[in-house]
C-alpha cells in the first residue's frame, strides 16, 4: 500500500560507457531494493502496530491527561473492546450483578486495626486528580505506540508468557525457578469455589530489569494445570515492559487455555465487560504504603453470579467494575477448583545471579505490619454465595530465602498472611 516512486532512465553512448552505466544502475537498483525491502518490513510493522492501536483505542468521548503520563480515554460503554468479540455482538450488557455475596467481614466495621485507621484517605487512582469520566462511558488507559513496541511482538502485547502459574502440588526442588517465575502464596483446593476476596497491602516494589515484574494478586483457577487451565486474576503490579514505568497499577488477567491463545491483561483484548466509569484497569494506584509509615490497601472481590454465571469483580466497597462472561471459560463456567493469593516476580537471573527485584514491600514476612506486605481477610465464596473463611490453607514458595510467606488468623484481620522479600541477598544468590 505504501508506494515508493522510482524512475529509471536510459543511457546511451559508446559500449564501454553503456556497460558502466548498466553496472552503476544495477548497483543502484540493488541498493534501492535493499532499502525498499527494509522500508517495507519497517512499514509493515508500523502498519501492524497502527492497526492494533486502532483496535484497542476506541474513539473517546473525552480524554484525561493523568499526572503519571497516562491518557485515560472515556469511551462509550458500548464501544468497549469486549464487543469486538463475535460472541458478544448481541450481548445485552448487564448493569449490575443479580447477587452479591454475603460477607463475614464488614470492612467498615473493622476500625480498630492500625491499617483501618490509616485508611482515612481512600485509595485512589492518579488520574482522578484531573477529571472524571461521564456516565455511560468507561475509563480506558490509552495504549501508546511505545507500549506495543516494547512487547516481543504485536501479538504478544498485553499477554502473559506461557505457564506462569504457581503450581503448589507438583512443587519439588526440580521445579525451582521454572521459567524464572517465583512465588510466595497461600492457596486452598479440594472444594468448589465460587469466588474469592482479599484486602491487599499496596507497595511499589523495585524492579531490577525492565523485562521483570512484581505483582500481588489473587487467582481463581479452574481445571488441572494442563493446556486448558482457566484463570481469572486481579491485584496490583509493577511491570515496566507492560506500562513503561515503575508505577503500581491495578490490573486483571484472564485465560481459558493456560496463557496460550486466549486472554490478556486489563481490557487489552475482548473479554471483560466493564460497567464502571470511575476505575480504569491498568491505571496507577495512589497513595502507596511506605516503610514504617502510612499503610494503604485495596480490596478485591471476584464472584460468580449464580443466575447468569458471569464472574464479577468489585474493587473496594464501592466499585463494581464489571464481569467476565461465562462463555469465555470451560471449567470456570461451573466453578473454580483452586484459589491462590500472593506475590509473583520474574527472576531473569541477570549475570547468573538471583534478581534483586522485590516482592511485596521488599521485606520478609517476619518484619510484620508497616514493614512487610500483607493480604488480610482472605475469604472464599461458597456454593450458597456466602463469603467464608478458607479451610485448609496451604502455603507455597520456591525459595523461601528469596521470598517467603507466613499465615495467621485473628479477629480483626480474619485469615491473613505476610509475604514477600528482597530477592537477591546473602542467602539467595
Ligand atoms: C524503573 O526502576 C529502575 C530501577 O529500579 C530504573 O533503572 C528504571 O530506569 C526505572 N524505569 C522508569 C521508566 O522509570
Describe what this molecule looks like in 3D.
The chain has 429 residues and is of the alpha+beta class. 13% of the residues lie in helices and 30% in strands. It has one domain. The chain is built from 4 helices and 21 strands. Mean pLDDT is 85; it is low at 1-13, 21-25, 105-114, 116-120 and 170-177. Residues 206-207, 240, 245-246 line the site of 2-acetamido-2-deoxy-beta-D-glucopyranose.
The number of domains: 1
What fraction strand? 25-35%
Largest sheet: 9 strands, antiparallel
Distance between the termini: 53 Å
Helix and strand run: HEEHEEHEEEEHEEEEEEEEEEEEE
SSE map:
Blueprint: H1 15-56, E1 62-65, E2 71-76, H2 114-118, E3 124-125, E4 137-141, H3 145-150, E5 181-193, E6 195-201, E7 214-222, E8 230-238, H4 240-243, E9 249-255, E10 264-265, E11 273-274, E12 285-286, E13 297-304, E14 311-315, E15 319-324, E16 336-346, E17 373-381, E18 387-388, E19 394-397, E20 404-410, E21 414-420
Antiparallel strand pairs: 1-2, 2-4, 3-12, 5-16, 5-19, 6-13, 6-17, 7-8, 7-16, 8-9, 9-10, 11-15, 13-14, 14-15, 17-18, 17-21, 20-21
Bound molecules: 2-acetamido-2-deoxy-beta-D-glucopyranose (NAG).
Keywords: Signal
Protein name: Neprosin PEP catalytic domain-containing protein
Pfam family, one: Neprosin
Give the key terms.
429 residues; globular; nine-stranded antiparallel beta sheet; seven-stranded antiparallel beta sheet; 4 helices; disordered N terminus; 13% helix; binds 2-acetamido-2-deoxy-beta-D-glucopyranose; alpha+beta
